[in-house]
Amino acid sequence: MRSSIRRQLLHLATDLSALAANPDDLGHGFDLLTRSYATPVAEAARAALRRNPAIAPLIRERYWGRWPSQTELLGLPAESLGHAYASWFAGAGSQPLPDPVLQAGSDGDDTWLHQRVRRTHDLWHVVCGCPPTAAGEAAMSAVNVMQLRWPGSAMLLGADLLHRCLEGPAAGEVNVGQAAAYGLELGRVCAPLLAQRWEEGWDRPLADWRKQLGITELVKLSPFRGEMSRA
Prior knowledge:
- The protein is mainly α.
- The chain contains 13 helices and no strands.
- The chain has helices at residues 3-21, 26-36, 40-51, 56-61, 70-74, 81-91, 108-128, 134-147, 151-167, 176-189, 206-213, 216-220, 225-230.
- It starts with a helix and ends with a helix.
């Protein structure tokens, strides 16, 4: 085994160990994601996304529409995607995720892919009906595993499940196993989230977006439906 690969595996193992002990350790979580971007599995995943006929047009044009302010979004109808997103974001603490850290020399396609996934992560939470909890993040990691094949998401999900095995279910929260099962099925059924031009439909009802994506009935069965209805 080459020394560079051995070092990479040791770093990943350190991150995974820390996350299995504490899934809320954001430092190790982002470090794990950053290290995973340089793996052959991640490159294969990006290549598959570039070939996806639904996603390729957005990559070619580097699609990026306007993101209104939170105040503007909250002024939209209560049933709209924009209002739901702004309300969720406020409840989650109003802290956008940091930009992904990529290898020097990453091309424009890879940069767009990673930045687009990171920027729309919270929006995907809203559309999929997943709250900003440990279980909700586990569900979204499972969605990413199915839709993006991100190795980092698979490792995050593995750490969540290992933590659940070691510590048992978190009191008062959806079981991580249930969350993972929901996310995997959601990712399988849902139209590609990365292919959506969200910015062209802030004022569209969230229910219409879910119907377009083919997940209306599945979201109704979400283990988080009680939590999201109170949000």
